[in-house]
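Checklist before submission:
- one chain only
- standard amino acids only
- sequence pasted in full

Submission:
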Amino acid sequence: MKRVRVYEFGGPEVLKLEEVEDLRPGADEVLIRVKAAGVNPYDTYMRSGNYGTRTPTLPFTPGSDAAGVVEAIGAQVSGITSGDRVYTMGTLTGAYAELALCKRSQVQPLPDRISFAQGAGIFVPYATAYRALFQIARAVALETVLIHGASGGVGLAAVQFARTAGLTIIGTAGTDEGLRLIGEQGVHHAINHRAPDYLQEILRLTSGRGVDVILEMLAHVNLSNDLKMLAIGGRAVVIGSRGDIEITPRDLMQREASVTGMMLWNTPEAELAKVYRAIHAGLENGSLHPVIGLEVPLAEATQAHRRVMEPGARGKVVLTI
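Returned file contents:
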């Protein structure tokens, strides 16, 4: 089997494609023949060794999001069989490979109408979006949510969840293509965050009241301004940040607002079970439909890692295998 391996921390060039013997499942494991693997920004942080307590032990194969078919199951595994179409919510051996081992709890059925590429764009984006929007921000119908970077994988997932929950959605993107995409996905107001007056435009759309919830993908750029756009009792959730930023605490005080950081891996098991159920229901009823922006062959994983960190995202980046 082919897999991507990281033997030293560094830039995209440390991703090495190699050939190794095929994996075999243990008694309680599922072996997946991977057709596509999702590429997430956190994969690049792990590759570079800059992911705090989540920094992996070398060597390792990146990736948690995969979609494919069940190749084999262990003797103690039930409820799934060889040939089933599935997607993963984590793996034991990494998703950037032709074969991946998973715990039974990490394997979910993939609806026929969802392609393998789309299946590889489910776990991290949709679980992050649901956790941030409903479990941390506790958004409810009739509230207004600002999704910064709405054209990326997590942003689009949040748009789809927010639309079905009855929220008014303000989404930002940095290109005409991104703005068009988020409009097609159901954003009520699409704003170019590169425009010099975009803050004033958001406040105008809310009649000066501000927004109830902000999902922030690039806090080191936007958080200071975010605090000025929150309504009384508003909640900002920091999903992504790549550096430091200075804020004015009085912006929080006068609004009695809050800022909460999140990392998907900290989700308690009981809450994660609710996330899984919500995603499964959305995939079944058609309200959730991953948008793929770029498909790259496994052998070009270095390109995928560069592209996923570039501005102007328009959906998920996936590796095809």
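Reviewer check: DSSP finds ten helices and 15 strands in the chain.
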